[in-house]
Design brief:
The complex is a heterodimer. Chain A is mostly beta strands. In chain A, 12% of the residues lie in helices and 50% in strands. The N and C termini of chain A lie far apart (54 Å). The relative contact order of chain A is 0.18. Chain B is elongated, with a radius of gyration of 29 Å. The chains are: A mainly beta, B alpha+beta. Chains A and B meet through helix 1, helix 2, helix 3, helix 4 and strand 9 of A and helix 1, strand 1, strand 2, strand 3 and strand 9 of B. Strand 13 of chain A pairs parallel with strand 2 of chain B, so a sheet runs across the interface.
Chain lengths: 451, 181
Amino acid sequence: MKIKLNNFLILFLCINTVTAQNKKILFGFDEIPQSLMVNPGTNINYNRHIGIPLLSGAYIHAGLTGFSIADLFANDGIDINSKLRNLLEQTNRNDYYTVNQQLELFNFGFRLKNPRDYVSFGFYQEFDGIIYHPKDIVTLALEGNQEIGRAFNLEDLSFKASLIGVYHIGINRKINRKLTVGVRGKIYLSVFNTTSVNNSGVFITETGENNFYNLQLVDANLSLRTSGIVNNNAVFSKFLFSGNMGLGVDLGLTYKLEEGLEISASILDLGFIRHRKDIRNYGVKGNQMFEGLNLLFPTEENNEYWQSLEDEFEEDLPLDTLNVKYTTTRSTKLNGSFAYRFGKKNKNDCLRSESKNKLPNEIGIQLYTILRPRRPQFATTLYYYRRLTEQLRIKTTYTVDDYNFTNIGFGLTTHFKKYNFYVTADNLLGYVDLSKSKNQAVQFGMNLIFE
Amino acid sequence: MKIQKIISLLLMSVIITSCVSDVDFNQVDDISIQPIVKSSILYFNATTNDFIDPITNDPITFISDTTDMRLFDSSLAQEDVTKIVLKFNIENTFNKNFNLEYIFFNEANEVITSIPFNIINNNILEQEISYENGDLQNLLSAKKIAVIATIEVNQDSTTPSMFLNFQSAADSYFNIVVNEN
């Protein structure tokens, strides 16, 4: 137990961000082929790309709102139990803990005979998990039901986790000098999924009518749905063929308003997964109250008060294990940006094609939303992009999201002949002391790009 | 490629040398929580009719009942409870005194502990009994409870509206330690 908990915490520490899957640095960074994965309608200024298998795109992000590792584990001589209590008091039910990880196995793209069209396809694996801080349930565990009249909200229990493989193919078309649009179709293969959202009900202890206490469960409705967890012996084959499949689509566009001004937008993972194999669902629904065992002093012995109480519980709060098929929706993401390009063109640029001939500076604002079980998460990013040389371009970002106002990110991409390497990292200040960071994301990869 | 290597090296070194202030995860071992769980145990309301034999109509001097009681069965209760406070509230509106025995039995039907009450007529008795250490371990082996209520006779006769109301509950104090060792 102890080792597992430590590993879990260290995982948070090492990979440490907040707004999940906000690839703000990659968005609009169109020299990097993986920017097609955040906007299928981005500008493409090359003819072919080959992602280095397994190394073309690795992304990891972990975040927690509420408190940081150091808040709890700092070696400051303060009793951990009082720190824990204070932190739990500050933390509210909309705080969350999240991890997202993606790894591209392959990613290729090429321009069709019609030079307006660029096709890209690939496969990536993704793990995504989010758990909201179950405030009332934690309080119940910590304090018990000692406070008469205190209602504990079972709605606070909300989490989901999934491991999927994604096959995708997209097409990017330059409609005219101003407008580029793109669409990407996705097939999701679910390796496992566990979902417990939309729980409801209240647990409350009140002064009883017939006895000291009346323990009540009111309108309880709890459910846990899982697929792929039973019979979990063939994880790898499930990436290739899973009975639990789904479909999704990414849409995007870039529109040039006038020279130097551009807007772009994308919607990602508008999709669902239908779970039909290896399903194990649990549900509890009903009302219950307990004032104690009521003795009736019958003349015969053998009184089954306890047994009838248990029977009553089972009847009023039946555990439903119906393994019915279910559908989950993907966490849909929305991106939008407004960019302004400026500066002097390099002399050499005159010799280059129109698409390469872009101004070396860009500033802009990006908006990001991800739809989550309880409410959407939002982020706003200001950024500056600079083409330092033909070989090296950089982008710096400043992001404000749910609970973090000091998120400065940095990305760079290098282009030596056909070799491309890129890396993006957000919340750089977090690296000053990872244990105090609530939010860290890193992405990097290598491609061959043919112009 | 050289510059590329240098840049990756630089980035890696930033990530590797990034600081982690003095944190001590071993503090997890010191985490302990102390919830208090309140639960009713049993109750009854015995009226004049309960003290009359339904067949012979003769007065009955005592009544008794027994029930299984598995409230302390969970391993959490067995291992992590440090104190139990039993609470009683007994109201006697009869014009007679009552002697009441509240008896706990273990799995082998042996008496663990027996709590006597004397409730004088037209009176309310409130009582709390705290169990810790050895007494607590004894109490936690309880699987059954019996109640015997005896009327002290040779007093005035009863009237129908009289009752003996009995309420009992337990406040269990837990101390749950993450790492027991």
